[in-house]
Structure formats: structure tokens, C-alpha cells
What we know:
The protein is of the alpha+beta class. The chain is built from 7 helices and 4 strands, in the order αααβααβαβαβ. The protein has helices at 2-29, 33-48, 73-85, 100-107, 110-118, 137-158, 182-188; strands at residues 89-90, 125-130, 165-171, 190-195.
Amino acid sequence: xxxxxxxxxxxxxxxxxxxxxxxxxxxxxxxxxxxxxxxxxxxxxxxxxxxxxxxxxxxxxxxxxxxxxxxxxxxxxxxxxxxxxxxxxxxxxxxxxxxxxxxxxxxxxxxxxxxxxxxxxxxxxxxxxxxxxxxxxxxxxxxxxxxxxxxxxxxxxxxxxxxxxxxxxxxxxxxxxxxxxxxxxxxxxxxxxxxxxxx
Length: 199
């Protein structure tokens, strides 16, 4: 009996040792702990890095002032110089058709004037129509209007916007010459261009 007990104990011990040896082999078969730690470190580093977002610089408010619809003093002075060069255009007696010399007069410096006016669409010029003293006031108002419109049509062909050109007839009310002869009457049969009042 004593012998069988010893045998039983030896068998149990052998099985335990054998089981322990197998268990160690299974532990040794597990992947090393270092890679698992490295993976954890990588994940930790990923979570610690702030998310990269596209940072756009703050848009500064547009500090450029809107362009003025009217020319400044320097540009206005240049317009006045150009208008002074564009002398009055003259007409034949009882006519509103532009003569070649009148067209030449209107053409002088009108391209520069056109280029300036394009930048100031609210700025306007007035074309005044004038007549000599002969004929009724009513007739001369109509004739002066036709002369002003003839000049406007020509300037529109040059490229000046029609809505920047007003027409006004004075008829025989504003003569530049008071004599009662053909030389004086010729000076009064004209158109004259003026700029709008300063703002």
C-alpha cells in the first residue's frame, strides 16, 4: 500500500512537472512584449499629436477705399485744361451740321478726355448750343439744341459715353460778341462744352 501511494505521488509529480513544462513552452511561444509596448507608444504618440488643420491667415478687411465717382482736384484740373483746348465748334448760318473745322476742334484731345471720363461714370459734361441774334427766341432755342446734339453725337462716336454728355440750348441768350455784323454773328453760332460743378 505504501508503495502504491509513492507511485501515485510520483505520477502526480511527473504530470505536474510535465504540465509546467508545457505551460512554459506556451509562454515562450507568445510574442515578445516589446513590440506590443512599441505599438502602445505609437498609439500614444498619435493621440498626443495635435490634429493638423489648415490654418488660413485672418482675412484683413479691405482697406482700399472705394473709388470716388467724381475726379479729384488734380484730375478735374486736367479735364478743365482739355476742355479749354477743345475750342468752341462753329456753325454756318441757320445750320446745325458740323463743319470739318468743327469736327477737328471736337477731336482735339477728346481721346484723353474720353479715357479720363471712363473712370468717373457719374461725372458729366454739358454741351451748350448757341446761336446769333437773328431769328426768334423760340427758333434759336431749337437750333441751339440741334447744334448741341450734333456735337454730342460726334463725341459719342469718339467713345465718350452718351449718358455723360448733357445738352443745353441757350439760343441767342448768351452771345460772346455784341456787334451786329457777320464776323460777330459767326462767333455766336457755336457749341461750348463745360464740366459739371465741383462736388
